[in-house]
Automatic annotation (TrEMBL):
Residues 1-26 are annotated as: Disordered. This is Uncharacterized protein. PROSITE patterns: VOC. InterPro entries: GLOD4, GLOD4_C, Glyas_Bleomycin-R_OHBP_Dase, VOC_core. Signal peptide: none annotated. It comes from Cyprideis torosa. The lineage of its organism: Eukaryota, Metazoa, Ecdysozoa, Arthropoda, Crustacea. Belongs to the glyoxalase I family. Keywords: Repeat. The keyword Cytoplasm does not apply.
């Protein structure tokens, strides 16, 4: 079941919400980690079980128990963006980007997805302009690399140069895959990054030695001396 996360009080801000459904063990670990960090605010959800946390910047995230098998094992269920015009937003996300409309629980929102088993994008109607100076971020999708030029061309043709924030570009990572991306803006200025899936998956491989390498780099950067002079303990990864 998909459920909209309540908007913060200042709804004119760019609202982004995350909803996650995890098996009990995963949710319990996340909740325990939040409690260990004295994370506040954290409140119990009145329906469906689970808790709602507030991330830095005021974004609420819900942790709920559920079956991840219906979502290809992906714990992310839905992300919500504010929209000042659902009609314009649907023209962009559905008609231009090709997302499919899904069932929504309210007339003040539209739900979209790129296909079965994919996380949903919810566009939620607000009555005042989205204020990106108060909250900002970027939503990203990985797609076949050969589709990137077509997306850029289509958006430019229908929405103009202003909708192309970063034209198709290759981002080199020394010793790793070169990832190609194009960054767009929807009618409310929400940034959308489309990244070539093949290189992205290669670049996203977990390095089992990553934590060790990070700690070694932190030890070698002489920041420990700076923290010592300030009389505060140096954070660890």
């Amino acid at each position: 079941m998909y459920r909209r996360v309540p908007a913060p009080a200042s709804s004119q801000h760019q609202t982004k919400f995350g909803q996650f459904e995890n098996k009990r063990s995963t949710k319990t670990k996340a909740m325990q980690a939040a409690r260990d960090l004295n994370w506040t605010p954290m409140r119990e959800l009145s329906s469906g079980g689970g808790v709602e946390l507030e991330a830095p910047g005021g974004y609420p995230f819900q942790l709920k128990e559920g079956d991840r098998s219906s979502n290809n094992g992906d714990p992310v269920r839905k992300v919500t963006l504010a929209s000042t015009s659902l009609e314009k937003s649907m023209l962009f996300w559905k008609d231009t980007l090709g997302m499919q409309e899904a069932k929504s629980a309210t007339t003040s929102a539209k739900c979209l997805t790129f296909g079965p088993g994919q996380a949903q994008l919810e566009l939620y109607q607000i009555d005042s302009p989205v204020d990106h100076s108060k909250a900002f971020g970027r939503i990203a999708f990985s797609i076949p690399r050969q589709s990137l030029p077509d997306i850029q061309c289509t958006v430019k043709e229908r929405w103009g140069e202003a909708a192309i924030l970063t034209p198709l570009v290759a981002l080199d990572t020394p010793g790793k895959a070169t990832v190609e991306v194009v960054i767009l803006a929807d009618p409310d200025g929400h940034e959308i990054c489309f990244v070539g899936d093949e290189a992205f998956r290669e670049l996203s491989q977990v390095d089992p030695a990553a934590e060790k390498l990070l700690q070694e780099a932190m030890e070698a950067d002489k920041s420990k001396e700076w923290f010592s002079k300030k009389g505060i303990p140096k954070p660890t990864a």
